[in-house]
Specification:
Blueprint (H helix, E strand, L loop, with lengths): L1 H5 L15 H17 L12 H26 L1 H18 L1 H5 L11 H18 L5 H43 L10 E5 L26 H13 L11 E5 L9 E4 L4 H4 L5 H4 L1 E3 L8 E2 L5 H14 L1
Parallel strand pairs: 1-2, 1-3
Antiparallel strand pairs: 3-4, 4-5
Length: 312
């Protein structure tokens, strides 16, 4: 494989290349990885939304860890204090050692779970030592508050920044699949316009994790549409051959029966719940290309949903 890389046949990914700029890597660790791990309640954001809360969260945990280290030094002497500081600095770094060795510099949350767990363990030990003279009721209240905060933020992150945007994408694709009329030859032509990251249905977005899109790729739109068609026509044999599918990052040229414009996802961000209908365009009769359908009014959309429920 090294020979193929050397010959220029394949380009080596940064994920399998070894880091050589260690000064820059440590700076990246201090600027991106460490703050992400310290801010356990507030997520980072590519566009710095909620930046103040994010930095405050990281600073508060850093202050708690510093207080625990200082107390350890004062109570048990220099040797124990140095051991605590060495472990506090070294163990989190060791937990992300694979990311440090690899040349890639992409500070994602999925790569820092172990590091965050180490810091949380030190934070719990620090909080326990610093509140040793508190009453049991006060310590219980503090622990309950921290647990409740973690529970609420985790629920919000999982729902609002993962499940909900994925649901918005699925809604648009399913709405397009519902309008496909399977017939004989020629088969209906389907086109999906892939979105850009800026078209995300959430205001907050971080890398390819929270608030990110699945459909801004070469292969995911096709698989999503295939899944939607199978859900709608579970007994139809050879379903994939009964329609022609294409996708791209721009409005298509030529005639298509159904065009799903996934760039309309940004309308969900503005609170427009009719975005699922706006995404569809059809051109059954126009040889010049697809023409956009007029979206239904909120009243019409509600009536349609009511009829669907009644039919069910």
């Amino acid at each position: 494989m090294s020979a193929l890389y050397a010959a220029g046949i394949f380009e080596k990914s940064e994920r399998v290349a070894i880091e050589t700029q260690w000064g820059g890597k440590l700076l990246w660790y201090a600027r991106e990885v460490l703050p992400n791990a310290l801010s356990v309640f507030v997520l980072n954001d590519d566009h710095w939304r909620g930046r103040a809360q994010y930095l405050i969260g990281a600073a508060l945990l850093a202050l708690l860890l510093s207080g625990g280290a200082a107390l350890e030094w004062r109570r048990h002497g220099r040797a124990r204090g140095l051991l605590w500081l060495t472990a506090l600095a070294g163990l989190p770094l060791f937990a992300v050692s694979v990311s440090m060795i690899a040349a890639e510099r992409y500070a994602t949350y999925r790569t820092i779970f172990a590091m965050t767990a180490v810091l949380v363990c030190f934070a719990v030990a620090s909080a326990d030592a610093l509140t040793a003279n508190w009453s049991k009721a006060r310590r219980t209240a503090l622990a309950a508050s921290a647990f409740l905060g973690a529970l609420l933020t985790a629920q919000y992150h999982a729902y609002a920044l993962l499940a909900l945007p994925q649901g918005h994408e699925w809604r648009l694709v399913m709405n397009g699949a519902e309008r496909v009329q399977l017939r004989g030859l020629p088969p209906p032509r389907i086109f999906i316009v892939a979105p850009d990251p800026a078209d995300s249905s959430t205001a907050r977005i971080y890398h390819d994790e929270f608030g990110s899109l699945s459909s801004n790729s070469d292969w995911v739109p096709k698989e999503m549409f295939k899944r939607a068609m199978r859900d709608l026509h579970p007994t139809t044999p050879h379903l994939d051959s009964r329609y022609a599918f294409a996708s791209g990052d721009a409005w298509p040229k030529g005639r298509f029966d159904v065009v799903v414009d996934m760039r309309r996802l940004r309308l969900f961000r503005a609170g427009d719940q009719s975005a699922g209908y706006l995404a569809i365009a059809r051109s059954p009769d126009s040889p010049s290309g697809a023409r956009a359908e007029s979206p239904p009014s909120p009243r019409a959309a509600t009536a349609r949903a009511g009829r669907s429920s009644s039919a069910t």
